[in-house]
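quick q for whoever's on today - can somebody do inverse folding on this one?? i tried earlier but teh output was garbage lol. tokens:
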């Protein structure tokens, strides 16, 4: 076992010594003096934390807290800039999550549109020579002229006689 992996898992060994991976770690700790020292240091820290007791709150804690809450509620409302500042500084982010999700979705749509060429920018073509481009233009023009000729031929009368019909 690598010392780095063992030292990162020492806390797991202290919290759950019956874990299946703990045998390998115990063997490594017995063979490695640096890991053994780290393990003993963590054991001492955990033992010290076990002896610590949280202090009892003062008997009037609840009443003092209620008074302070009432005082804060009766204060004049802050301006919009101060409210915005306090929301940004002390907020958990729950109110901003939908707005951020919508903004990210918009960024993804715009980015995807730019990549998929939905934005209307001209499509870049591979570099072709000027001669090939000229030939392509002539071919398109020739096709357009042939189409115009066909349309004009369809409009011409089927009878070539110039005499008006007799009545």
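ok took a stab at it. sequence:
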């Amino acid at each position: 076992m690598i010392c780095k992996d063992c030292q990162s898992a020492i806390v797991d060994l202290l919290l759950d010594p019956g874990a299946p991976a703990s045998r390998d770690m115990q063997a490594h700790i017995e063979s490695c003096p640096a890991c053994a020292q780290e393990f003993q240091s963590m054991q001492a820290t955990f033992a010290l934390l076990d002896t610590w007791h949280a202090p009892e709150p003062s008997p009037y804690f609840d009443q003092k807290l209620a008074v302070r809450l009432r005082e804060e509620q009766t204060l004049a409302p802050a301006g919009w800039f101060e409210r915005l500042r306090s929301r940004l500084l002390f907020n958990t982010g729950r109110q901003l999550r939908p707005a951020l999700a919508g903004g990210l979705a918009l960024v993804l749509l715009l980015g995807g549109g730019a990549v998929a060429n939905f934005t209307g920018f001209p499509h870049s073509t591979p570099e072709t020579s000027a001669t090939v481009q000229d030939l392509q233009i002539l071919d398109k023009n020739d096709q357009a002229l042939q189409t115009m000729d066909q349309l004009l031929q369809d409009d011409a009368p089927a009878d070539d006689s110039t005499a008006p019909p007799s009545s």
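fwiw The helical segments are 3-8, 10-15, 22-31, 33-51, 61-74, 80-90, 97-115, 130-155. also The two ends are 115 Å apart (CA to CA). so keep that in mind when u check it
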